[in-house]
Write a structure and sequence with these properties.
Number of domains: 1
CATH topology: Rossmann fold
CATH class: Alpha Beta
CATH superfamily: Vaccinia Virus protein VP39
Order of helices and strands: HEEHHHHHEHEHEHEHEHEEEEHE
Radius of gyration: 19 Å
Structural class: alpha/beta
Bound molecules: S-adenosylmethionine
Length: 332
């Protein structure tokens, strides 16, 4: 069985990028009158404790969500304007530009993210004290928060312990059959739900990439899904690490979207250098995950502007060294 447990990583910078994008997507897609089917192929446990053993041991949330909320203690006004649309947006290069982005009111997608955290953490909401931020929502809880009565959420999680936690966490919501949870292989099961009844769907594919074959499975699964249901919104998170499969995945997704005549968007967030460092004792230190990306096939037209507003602020707040930056590409 896999050893990956998302609880170690909950609220890290990769979750911040993933969940900011997910919130922007869910907010837009649930505004329409037609029912939406949301399929989360790799759901995790659904909710995480930021003061629990796993998260405290890894400390990853300190480099992610805690940096965002520490810089946004007071309820911030929504940022109304996004930079003009461009094919590729350069990150703020100078410390001055980064500071300016850190001082601005939060971009709408980030404000929605902080508001969602407030709704799950009443003491944090009341005090604004980051130490009171104790509950972190995984993708299932984020998705569920945006559903209306006609929408459906289908969750898949293969790890028995996380499946049990997810089942218990979802049961507490008391939402009946609107949200279903199954201990099945998300890559395999996706095809059985496409096309969805009302022909509107968003799929989040967020594997742990613990096994090398996950990269190929993501590309194959997305290729098959687009063939079955061309107009769905398909969302893939991927790590940016020095291994060929990871490097190839966004390129493969871009090719398959382009060949299918579908639009796409690729957003990346880098928070630090990927180089090995040596500490004072002379021990070589690995940097941990330096960057990740979100690839979206058939993105709503609003997503680019949402991320153009949010990404510079994430660089300013989460960036750890001069390698921090973002990219935002789109096509089709
Ligand atoms: N999407 C979650 C979130 O954003 O909160 C995090 C998911 S985590 C990165 C990946 C999860 O996929 C892990 O909990 C792992 O146990 C599960 N998993 C691994 N292989 C799977 C598969 N083939 N099908 C379904 N779940 C799988």
């Amino acid at each position: 069985m896999f050893s990956y447990r998302h609880a170690f990583h909950a609220g890290n910078h990769a979750d911040v990028l993933k969940h900011t994008t997910l919130i922007a997507l869910m907010k837009y897609l649930t505004q329409k009158d037609t029912a939406l089917t949301v399929i989360d192929t790799h759901a995790g446990a659904g909710l995480y404790r930021l003061d629990g053993d796993y998260t405290e041991t890894s400390g990853e949330a300190q480099e992610g969500i805690f940096r965002l909320v520490s810089a946004s203690k007071t309820p911030a006004a929504l940022s109304a304007s996004a930079p003009a649309a461009t094919k590729k947006v350069a990150p703020p290069k100078t410390p001055g530009a980064a500071k300016a982005a850190a001082d601005e009111p939060l971009a709408p997608a980030l404000q929605d993210y902080v508001d969602l955290l407030r709704s799950l953490n009443p003491q944090f909401a009341a005090s604004g004290d980051p130490a009171q931020l104790k509950i972190y929502p995984g993708s299932p809880f984020i998705e569920q928060q945006f559903l209306s009565g006609r929408d459906k959420l289908k969750l898949f999680e293969l790890h028995p312990t996380d499946f049990k936690s997810l089942t218990g966490n979802i049961a507490q919501l008391g939402v009946g059959r609107q949200v279903t949870v199954a201990c099945e292989d998300g890559f395999e099961v996706l095809k059985t739900f496409l096309p969805p009844p009302a022909r509107r769907a968003m799929v989040l594919c967020d594997p742990s990439y613990e096994i090398k074959s996950d990269y190929a499975r993501v590309a194959a699964c997305m290729g098959d899904a687009v063939k079955r249901f061309a107009t769905g919104t398909y969302v893939v998170w991927y790590p940016i690490i020095p291994r060929p499969e990871a490097h190839d995945l966004p390129r493969k997704l871009k090719t398959l979207a382009t060949k299918a005549g579908r639009s796409w968007l690729n957003a990346t967030l880098t928070v630090k250098s990927s180089k090995l460092t040596t500490d004072e004792a002379g021990d070589v230190k690995r940097p941990g995950l330096p960057a990740s990306g979100m690839f979206v096939i058939n993105p709503p037209h609003t997503l680019k502007a949402d991320l153009q507003a949010a990404l510079p602020q994430l660089v300013a707040r989460l960036g750890q060294d001069r390698n921090a930056g973002f990219t935002l590409d789109h096509g089709g």
